Amino acid sequence: MKLIKENYKLFILLYIFWIILTMNFDFTNLVTGLIISIITTIGSNGILYDEHGFKVKGPKLLSMVKFIPRLMFEIYMSSFSYIIRIIKKDCDPVFVDVKLNTNNLLIITIISNAITLTPGTITINTDKNKLIVLSIDDPEKKGKDLAEEIIEKYEKIFK
Amino acid sequence: MIYKGLLILSWIYIIFGLIGIFRFNNMYVRLLTSSKIDTVATITILIALIVKSGINDLSLRLLLIMIFIMITNPVNNHIICRSAYLNGIRIKGEIDK
Q1: Taking the C-alpha atoms of B41, B46, B48 and B50 in order, what is their torsion angle to the nearest 10 degrees?
Q2: What is residue A45's DSSP assignment?
Q3: Which residue is closest to A86 within chain B, CA to CA?
Q4: Is A57 helix (H, G, I), strand (E, B) or coil?
């Protein structure tokens, strides 16, 4: 119960998510949601938050508002260029090292998630703020340019 | 009308994704191609369904599912790719096969 008290915000968020997703106000459904939200809140102790509250500091709301349309635009733009690559059968994968300037874990996670969401790039591994990204080689651009392009696309929004 | 166009667009993504999976021999390129179907096609289908259903509780639920997919879907691809990378599958070796 102490753990729930410490992080009641997460619990409320999860419970609202459950209610909206099921849209069923039966007693059984409400109790099931309550139990699952409690288990999830207790289970995520130490991963998302500790006794001092959330472990990571979230980005500003304005940056997220700017980030989501940019992400959708990038997803669709690169999906079209990837279709052209499939038709031409021109895909040489390459590992690119991307060094981010931020040390905020949540921003690093958001950026690496966005890189994987974009067709043609997958984040493979992270080491602090250095990401190893699987990308498609472009003869016109070298590895450094590919890394700079990724930073230009996503990281600058969070500055 | 818009939702029909979006659904057709998602079929195009799925068809080209499937063609890509069979067309390439390299494991990493296949992963890149399959992740395209996972993300772009799914998001487009969900947007089409949101447009079709209009503003009601169903579209709110579809929007929540879309956000959930956008957060959790890349993790699948990341884990498959990372395990291949950590197990020593190299890009050059794959191309030579």
Answers
A1: -170
A2: B
A3: B20
A4: coil
- Say how many C-beta atoms besides its own lie within 10 A of residue B46's C-beta: 20
pLDDT number for residue B97: 46
What one-character DSSP code corresponds to residue A150?
Answer: H
pLDDT in tens, B22-47: 888 888 888 888 888 878 899 999 99
Confidence of residue A34 (pLDDT cuts 50, 70, 90): very high
- Asked if residue B28 lies in contact with residue B81, where contact means CB atoms within 8 angstroms, the answer is yes
**What is residue B92's predicted lDDT score, i.e. its pLDDT?**
67
Distance (Å, rounded) from C-alpha A59 to C-alpha A158?
A: 7
Q: Return the sign of the alpha-carbon dihedral for residues A139, A144, A148, A150.
A: positive
CB A119 within 8 A of CB B39: yes
A141 or A30, which is more confident? Answer: A30
Structure tokens at A12: 């409320």
Residues of B in contact with A122 (CB under 8 A): 31-32, 35, 74, 77-78, 81
For residue B71, give the 3-state DSSP assignment.
helix
Please list every residue in chain B whose beta carbon sits closer than 8 Å to the beta carbon of residue A116: 35, 74-75, 77-78
CA–CA dist B5, A147 (Å, integer): 34
Please name each of the domains of chain B with its CATH number.
2-96 (1.10.287)
Would you call B83 helix, strand, or coil by DSSP? helix
Nearest of A32, A11, A12 to residue A22 by alpha carbon: A32
What ipTM does this complex have? 0.84
Q: Are B23 and A89 in contact (CB under 8 A)?
A: yes
Instruction: Encode pLDDT of A48-97 as tens digits.
Output: 777 776 777 777 888 888 888 888 888 888 888 888 888 888 778 888 88
